[in-house]
Amino acid sequence: FARKWFLYEGQSEDVIIPYFARLLNKNFDEHGVSGIMYRSNGTAGAFIKLAKVLNIQWFLLGDNDEQGKTTMKEVFNCGYTKEEVKDYISLTSTKDFEHELSESPSILMDYESILANELTEDIKKLKEINKVEYRHKIVEIIQKGKIENAYKLVEIWDRRRLLVEDIPKVIVDLIERL
Question: Which residues lie below 8 Å from residue 71, measured CB to CB, with a gap of 6+?
């Protein structure tokens, strides 16, 4: 087992978060951190209970949606206080991981390049009319192929050399705490 666990919801995070960690010079393997997709392998509560038994420090990134609220309840049911939860859990500042990424203008442009052939004229017009709704539509399309698009993002970032400043703050802060 690792010395620390970084729990996150799914496969997109499993591709992108270690990439961000390397960009921040925080290689998970070198620091004894294992990333765990808790939603694909059970519940956050199950992993948190196991971490408690094995005395493994853990941190969790969850979406700021109904599932995130359910995850918070699971943690409280494991006996953690509100103060402890603040130390161990971070929720995205937006609805979910993909929306969080889209808050960065450069990452939104990366989403657009991935979807170049799928953007209809109606969607392109929406960009001029309502930027927030446009961003939500882009993310909605990206989420239809989350995992494939996560790998495409990493390829794009390798080519253009993603800047640390483009990484969402909530993710940077959590990686730094690890």
Answer: 43, 44, 45, 60, 62, 89
